[in-house]
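In the current project phase, the collection of sequences with tokenised folds has grown. A representative record is quoted in full directly below:
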Amino acid sequence: MFFFDGSFGTYYKQITKQDTLPEHANINNPDIVFKIHKGYVNAGSNAITTNTFCANSLAFSTKEEIEDCIKRGYEIAKKAAGNNTMVFADIGYVYDNSNEIFDNPQEEYLFIADTFLKLGAKNFLFETFAEYEVAKHAMKYIRQHDKDATIHITFAVSPDGLTSKGLNYIDLIKSVVKDNLADGTGLNCICGPAHIKQLMAQLIQTENINLKLIAMPNSGYPSRVDNMYFYDNNSSYFAKVMAEIADLGISILGGCCGTSPVHIERMIDYLTNKKASILNTNDIGKRKEKDNEEVKRSVFSQKLEKGEKPIAVELDPPLDTDIGFLVSSAQELKKHGADVLTFADSPLARTRACSFLTASRIKREADVDVMPHMTCRDKNNIGISSTLIGGAIDGIGNILCVTGDPASHGTKGVFSFNSYNLIEYVNRMNSEYFKSTPYFIGAALNTSAPNFKNELARALKKEEMGANFFMTQPIYSKENIKNLKEAKKSLNSYILAGILPFASYKNALFLNNEVSGIEIPKEVLDSLEGKSNEEVREISISYALDITDKVYDICDGLYIMIPLKRTDIVIEVLEKVKSRRKI
């Protein structure tokens, strides 16, 4: 076993009662920095980390100030460590949400690493990272300058295993292993010991990791008092759970926020005296039991697998609480051949009823398969997880994952994920929580993209992340059909061709000029101008059927969107398509 120290930052605030960056104490109050380090040395730590987590351009104005902070911090740590304790150069993750300071964050880490190397540092800890790629350059630089250096990197994830960038911890750790730049990798911060234990157990159960694994959880979850965070003194509990983590085979242990020398001392004592409890395998056992459950797939997915060319029809959730039109329309659409009804997630960033709740209601009222859309705009990973679990409980088996239209009028979108991350996240939850009732995962494909080569590359990545099928934006032109053919050749997933009739000439102009991803040929727009409502209806239906004829043998199904509540238009299209469907 190898033991790191605990948190420097929260312990510094605990004993100084100051809510300031502890890194400044390297210069202003070196005695307190030495005292904290010495406390961890006396607690039995095999290694302490320098007080430099925030020694970067977000906390200091100039490179010279950063260098001075690192130099002093390293010297204090070396003095406190003596001859028997290792010192690790601590490089914290720099999260610049504004993107205004760092054009190239890799260069920031490289500068910090180089500063430590010049001081003679031999051991490095990249900690609390939300992504791996930004650290690789500096890690490679260290390895090139000192092949015997010890390099560890740890990631900060929430209990669902995702970083603040929406990246999954198992994939990050696998990338670290693949590159062979680090000696050890694992998790620290955000989670308390119980959740870190669950995550590490899952990692060990599913992957064969040939690096040393690291676990440095928070002591627990904090309370907020007067804009400051406080952690309970739970060192005995912390020690017990850390012993259970050690039983998993984790060989490098330490603490993060809320831990103190007392936590580390009790952890070491608990393990040294062989009081470690037997691994609690309840959670793992439950997962194994679920592996044997019969898998129930959505009706829509089964029809695609059988080659039946199912038809999805999109209905917009209401702007208010009146759901009468939606229920009656759903019942009619099912009667005339719709196989699955889809519900947009506040399209154009205009508030509508929740797509999942609406889908659940329609599923019950109309007894039809449903597919809610989910955007990354309005929910963080907690809200997304909650919604997915609720949908699964209610029997929803399909989902369309999209980034979502940007919010406007001063409203800020969340966008914790992009569509890739969301697809990967749903796929990951399928394997962990929804094994018997997995979501059938859909993604968007824009055949009108100016650079379709790039759009196809994006689709391939979505497929790699776990997308099972694609739904295209409305197809209107020969170029759209050409791109659809290209997509069908390149992708292994099912593709539903998008069909959107027009409700009026004005509606067609709006779609062409204001809705992203839609490009209607000029000759079609010209054919609608000056026509009566009935003439527009006939032209719209005729054109939709003509497009359907041209794409039917290319695609795996159809995705028909209702224009401005004109269900009658879509019902007529459905009736005409019926004769072409394979029964």
Observations:
- The two ends are 64 Å apart (CA to CA).
- Residues 275-290 have pLDDT under 50 and may be disordered.
- The longest strand covers residues 86-92.
